[in-house]
Amino acid sequence: MSDRLFRRAIRLGSGLGPAAVAALAATVVATVARLLGPMAVRFGIDQGITVGDRGVITVAALLYGGLIVAQYFAQRTSQYAVAWLGQRFLTQLRSAVFAHLMRLDMAFYGRSKAGVLVSRMTNDIESIQDFAEEGAVTLVTNLLTIAGVAAAMLLVDLTAALQVMSLIAVLIVASWLFQLFAGRAYREVREQIGRVLATLQEGITGVRVVQAFTREREQAGAFGSVSSDYLDANMATARAVAWYFPSVEILRIIGYGVLLFFGGRRVISGDMTFGTVVSLLLYLDWFFAPITNLSNTVNQMQSASAGLQKLFRLMDTPPAVVDAFDAVDLPDRLGGRVVFDDVSFGYDPNLLVVQDVSLSIEPGERVAIVGETGAGKSTLARLALRFYDPTTGTVTLDGRDLKTVSGRSRSRHVSLIPQEGFLFNGTLRDNLHYARPDATDDDLWRVCAAVGIEPWVRALPERLDTLVRERGSRFSAGERQLVALARAMLADPAVIVLDEATANLDPETEARVEEALGTVLEGRTAIVIAHRLRSAERADRVVMMNAGRVIALGSHHALVADSAEYARLVSVWERGILR
Amino acid sequence: MNRPADDHDDAASLTGLHEADARSGFRLLTSTLAHYRRDLALAIGGALLWMSMVVAVPYLVGMVIDRAITGDAHESLGRLVLFLLGAGVLLGIGIGVRRYFSFRVSYGAEVDLRKRMFEHMQRLAFSFHDVTSTGELMARASSDLSQVRLIYAMTPITLANIGMFLSVVVVLILVDPVLGAVTSLTVPAVLVLSRSYARRVIRLSYELQQRLADLSRVVEESIGGIQVIKSYGQEHQEQDKLDQAAFKIFDRGVKLAKVRSRFAPMFELMPSIATIAVLWLGGVRVVAGDITLGQFVAFTQYLAMLNFPLRISGWFFAQLPRATAAASRIQTLLAADPAIADPTEPVSLPPGRGEVRFRDVTFGFAPGSAVLRGLDLAIPGGTSLAVVGATGAGKTTLAHLIPRFRDVERGAITLDGVDVRTIALDELRREVAVVFQETYLFSASVRDNIGFGDPDATDEQIRLAARLAQAHDFISDLPAGYDTIVGERGHSLSGGQRQRVALARAVLRDPRVLILDDATSSVDAIVEAEMLAALEQVMRGRTTIIVAHRTSTLALADQVVFLDGGRIVAMGTHAELLAAVPRYGEVLAQAEASR
Q1: The CATH fold of domain A14-315
Q2: What is the pTM of this model?
């Protein structure tokens, strides 16, 4: 993990300092207690067993027992504290990343894939989890242990310690090589499992097309080849593992051999006590375990830092639309005059989607924006919601530049009705409350009645408490649309931007939605992104757009007479009507 | 509240399944493993070698001490150490062989099972996929399969561990019955502890996974509904939901940490506790001359060895019911009936112009509730038929019966005089191409998506099909033309563009019969106008069945059939029906009223 990344991660975990200090202290106590154990054994052997002093043996046993109890509690505290810290850090990280996502503007959402954003909040944060939960404590404990064991061995016997440590150098080189190969192999495995799952998912979601074109065998073949790549990647890690772990074990036994051979000769010649050899043998095992543990931790660290990097990149994306520091609230009652003054906008400043648009929409007026796909209809309408800020020019609401108005008060007065009625997981009541959290049940029933769904809701088994399931999947598209209309009505905005659905509902529902829309738009300024002749006819004025510019403006009848482009569009629409 | 079905599932997997399920799961586990007999034998062999050397090393260490260091045979020190090193090499070989072949068994079995599942899923009929969610199938092939793989990976080491454990106990008792008996006392303690630990950790990890899935749902929803959130300025409400979900994860995570921190140090210290006993009791016995110093040292090492195998075995037996439950779910999927299969003796399709006949066709999704009742219909080869009706009238069902996405309940459908159920599926579906209501494009290039219908198609043929479907122009304008990657992970196409690619994909096969299921429903009038031109082209001289409720599309058809209540109410040209059937006019007028 690079230094900068690490420091930034530390900053994210602000407020966790004291807990971290406590965790570290507990870890140190545990490690020291562990390292003192073999000393007690040596004391027992040399001062007790070899001289035949039972009293000393008992003291040594008690001493050892005390160290174990101390170690247990210290280790328990340290492990818990570190995991708690890790979870706390992840919670703060989740909250911070999501808060940033919520601040980001619609232009950002326009250019990002939903799946990628979801995976930032899930896979990438989870990739940090292993390290945060146990990796950190493994890292600290093992580093401390290695340092402690080295110190203890040197203290016990300098010569024997240096002999053993020359083996440790070999072990470190072997671990480094393993890291090099296995790291690459694990990355490959991660990539391949991603491909396997993606192919699998496509095979399932596209199964109808596969069967329609009888490509089952080819699909299975393609899946088979992805699968064998996955297997190959795993076998590459298997080979690395099958070389590394045996080498570690063999080195450990060589360590025994070295200690016994050279140590044994010194015991025979009387240079060294027997207890020293036994304690060194005990230390030797503790030297090996931490190094192999660390090589596992390095993997966790690599995937954690890859995840953090992606998250930081996301958090470095500045939101393009933010409240000005001196933003003001709009008054409670609003007329609803929307004025576009020489507005241009492009997601990419060199590619304008809306160009030099000046348009004044009177309070209570209904304006339909028409034009081909890609003409800029939807972008222009959304500028009134301040989903984007104009590149040049201003959008004003009752004379106030939207950039100077607080987001909270703007959203009370300007609402969007999207193409498809989007419902959140929860009850119908939750979904309606979305528009006005303080609305009473009477208010809710009133808007349900206004859009004509009151009898339907009353007939549901749990009425307003009915769960809509994921994205409202319990209801039909028409029902969802009607609930979304009731929600918009409850918000009671002065301005509504309506993105008309292109897909047809069944005729009866369509008629109900149409009627409800009439009620909801009544008395409000409405900007309708229109796809239908009927919507254009019903509007007070029609704005015809082409390549980002307004090319005609006026009532439907006036435009049919005046604008050749509009007349052509109308004739296309009419061809769809009964001949 | 969160997915009670899954919680129930899990409860069953932890507390024991229905016996039949457990048996079928276990059979799948063992039968799959049978393919890896050789690798499994090698893995177990490696594990046994490793295990016996692990037992031998402390014994040799004890011997070095007793004979060469504290004993008199000082000159044998070098030789005995060499023995020790030899044992070390064998130990290394054993561990390498065990690990490598355990990988082969577990990943090989995982991949095999997943391939089997994939192939089977591809064969399962529409009726299966109608009621099974993608998430459910993905769970079978990922998380359930991981459970199975884990148990396979642990099988060789567990078997070897049980052997090792038994031999250590025997060695201990042989060396010194008193010390052996005392130290063996730690065994039941470790076993009991590790089982109860594993059970708790597995349950809590599962709950943690569930909470993670909940959070992922919150995020998906917030991103999917970002327009609504921004429009109502409710970012803070979403933040609350997220924070709650994150807190639940925190809560489970900390609970898990609590259990782990309570148990893990205990396992680690278990051998040390026995070391106290050995230090004291053993020390006293050495002083009394009952055992040697070397034996004393060997004891402390054996103790350390008992711990790990017991823990692994505890894990294995706690994991086994979970893996069996997962395997039984996989087995249920693999045993699902494909419902629609190739006829045993297929009749080959004679040349023809694609005449389709329905004879007294009845179909229902559930027995007793027919969607189509006694339908008789003839579509002469090379002509087009539009199907009109209110939602739920059975239009799509009617279309899906021809390429046998579903089979008729009663009656028969013939293509150029041959019952479709007697034609090989491959041949039938080659001649009957479908453009679905919901266009599905694969994450691949436009070329591959169009060529999906015919892998042997040349670039020239693909371009021709694209031109026919009026898709060539916009494809040429894409950043990489025909090589542009589209689909879920590629360039986003508009609804109308996607539908034209799908249309090109269907006409590439030059089928006798083309079925267009509401192919123009989700596009606006302008795009529809472009689509109509494409449709007119591809329909020329080809039997075409169009499900539609837009009059502009209906006007293209030679005949229109009006369905209501599962029956044909009227049939004729669009104009005839308008004149003769008031209800037909009503349905269309209602549709038009909303345009």
Answers
A1: ABC transporter transmembrane region fold (1.20.1560)
A2: 0.74
